[in-house]
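Sequence dictates fold. Below is an illustrative record:

_____
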Amino acid sequence: MTRTVSIRVFGRVQGVGFRYSAMRRAVSLFITGWIRNHEHGHVEGVIQGGEEEVAAMLDWLREGPRHARVTETEFSETDGECFDAFRIL
């Protein structure tokens, strides 16, 4: 079953390679969707994939890459379009 989750990640998540690291992790897990910087300093996006893969991606997002400092995450199940790749917007 495909799961789609809207994500918001707060903390030191811009200017530290967060989006590019997230894209590499998503591709390795066969996750599709998108991620982008938000003007208020956090990162937002949508991830889509199998149950186990999405759970693994959410775990990764709670920590982020080495140079990031994640202080808070918000995840919500969502319906919507199907994605064919993972993109940085």
